[in-house]
Amino acid sequence: MIDSHTHSEHSADSVMPLNTLIDTAIGKGLDYLAVTDHMDRDFIYCVNNKEVAQLDLPAYAAAMRAAKERYAGKIKLAFGIECGYSADSLPISKKELCQYDYDVIINSVHTVKNEDIYDPVYYEGKTKDQIFLPYIEALSESLDADYPFDIIGHIGYIARKAPFPFVYADYDGLFDAIFKKIIQKGKCMEVNSHVKFAPVDFFPGADLVKRYRELGGELVTFSSDAHQAERVAEKYGLVTGMLKQLGFKYVAGYMRRKPEMYAI
Ligand SMILES: [Zn+2]
Ligand SMILES: [Zn+2]
User: Fold this and answer.
1) What pLDDT does 131 receive?
2) Which ligand is closest in space to the CA of residue 81?
3) Is the pTM of this model over 0.90?
């Protein structure tokens, strides 16, 4: 079992101690764990209208260095980061993504035209196209970001809050263009199981993953996106079962920015 996407106390939206995260992953029998704390330089994260401090990159890097030593031989531990894409923060993201020797970099879209799509306000009074088209455009743009990255984070994340289903058939041509770009650039697509109440179990949904495969996509990975210990590797069997049905045999776990394949 592997988990390519998790968060610790170094993320503004998690309080899980790094050691608890790693101990939990070992306890659950994971062979590989990537810690990928948030680097969102495009918006200010607030809890109860109070600004929460952004990622302290030097502190996070030092903690991961120490953890790698402490857990050597017990689990393959990847020093990762989840970069929130936005056109405005490209220069600072680029600088920081080139500053450290990450094992894995996830590039994710959390905001559309500087609006947080986790916030229900984004959806108010909008049609399906007004919600999805700018998101798909941002996804497409994010693939051209001129900074290093390996994994495309949670395509379809918008499905968690949107009042409409996010399905391949509605935007087939646009999705095809995105998948072709991912394949052509040699990037990996994650399937993210961080869903509690939405009408989907994971995203992108099986219809999208199927099309990615049909177009020649081979690099996929499993991501729980856990922010709490109990959610590490959540729905691993469900997601890999879907992947197997579609003909995938491996999920990729990145070390030193190279994919290593784990049989599913
Ligand atoms: Zn994310
Ligand atoms: Zn995440």
Assistant:
1) 96
2) 2
3) yes
